[in-house]
Amino acid sequence: MTKKSILVIFFLVIISLLFACSTKEIIRIATPTYEKGVEGVTFYSEVTDQKKISQLRTVVEKLERIENPKSESDLADVFFTLDNPEENYSEIGAYIWYKDDGTATLKRGEKNYYHVTKEQVDILKEILN
Q: What residues are paired with 89 via a beta bridge?
């Protein structure tokens, strides 16, 4: 390899790293609220650890879709978003209702419900707590 080709490779690697580092994702965690007939959330924590963000994305992508569960209480236990603040974009927003048997129900959007296994709940609790 010549000095010129080594320099080109070096600069390509540096540029790639800069682009990779510029996209900072954040998990924002909130408590669902209901006051005076208005539903909302109160954000109380953020997670920036890229390993946890990757774990969250993997769990959510593998969830099994279910019909609207009748046993769901009105107020979820936790709400979270996966945001890209630099682009002002929220990739995932979801409510979670934990159940006594160790599983949970996750809701994305108005009518998209998912079953969360005990193992998936353990991972989500580790990330969101």
A: 84
The DSSP secondary structure of the chain, one letter per residue, reads: --HHHHHHHHHHHHHHHHHHHH---EEEEEEEEEETTEEEEEEEEEE--HHHHHHHHHHHHTPEEEPPPTT--SS-SEEEEEEEGGGTEEEEEEEEEE-TTS-EEEEETTTEEEEE-HHHHHHHHHHH-
74 vs 33: CA distance, rounded Å: 10
pTM: 0.78
- Provide the H-helix boundaries in 3-117: 3-22, 50-61
**What helix, strand, coil percent values describe the chain, rounded to 5?**
35, 40, 25
Q: What is the pLDDT along the chain (129 residues), one digit of tens a residue?
A: 666 556 556 555 565 554 544 458 999 999 999 888 888 999 999 999 999 999 999 999 999 999 988 766 679 999 999 999 888 889 999 999 999 999 999 999 888 999 999 999 999 999 998
- Confirm if 94 and 83 have CB atoms less than 8 A apart: no
